[in-house]
């Protein structure tokens, strides 16, 4: 029996994005769901820094095409025998797992425990912008920083979000504001500052200048929480200065340099990492929390509390458009999310 194939975008060599072979249109075998997997017909995808970090030049070649992509919106085509949360025809959105093939393909396998029902008020392109950034922002605020989801508990508390105009920052700003925090975002250009203010930030400072003088000029002596979404080592001393005694700092950005944790000691400051792939990579007992939080994100979107962060949509999903999207992200100047729709 001839095996079914599907279109995908993948790579064999890890090359600079300017190289036409850095991402290629390929045909691969269509997968079949087993266990708790869903087979999803991919309708839209979005691009994140993890895509170009995985694709970045290195001395390695793949014998089979490596498929990237960790933001998908689509329709459940088929379910594995152990699936209980979804059925064929359900419209879903999710980020997937870094340890499995990504979603830049016509069909994609994903564990149901990290999948949510797509917001009903969004189209597939708008929904595809949300999963990875929403999971990261949610886990950073509520799981890592331990911020209460009860607005009353956060009265008078402040959070500084470094890189507030990016994908994660755009969601974190909205969630933090919804949770009753005073939100101070960082941005360096007028258009990114306007974007952050439009998402509900109370104040914007420039991340290329010292934080504390800017905070003091705006009336704050310190902040209770910091979420770092850009260059952990570059902002380390600024964060140590600005954080309140017994405050908490969370970062999502790996560092190439050693961090001087002693800077946090006298204030008894907590520092914690967030990686949204931890639960799926290690199959943690609470892995289903990503299913739950994505459903809650969908509810907040449908209730008008959260808005999608799509800022540019490219059609169709192919290697040329994905190379263009990667190049845009690599400038470090994108506002919101770049989405691709339709094969």
TrEMBL record:
Per its UniProt record, what Pfam families does this chain match? Answer: ADH_N, ADH_zinc_N_2
Q: Name one GO molecular function term.
A: zinc ion binding
- On the tree of life, the source organism's domain of life is Bacteria
Task: List the protein's name.
Answer: Zinc-type alcohol dehydrogenase-like protein
Question: What organism does this protein naturally occur in?
Answer: Paenibacillus faecis
Q: Which UniProt keywords apply?
A: Metal-binding, Oxidoreductase, Zinc
Give the similarity note: Belongs to the zinc-containing alcohol dehydrogenase family. Quinone oxidoreductase subfamily.
Domain Enoyl reductase (ER) positions: 18-340
Keyword Oxidoreductase in the entry? The reply is yes
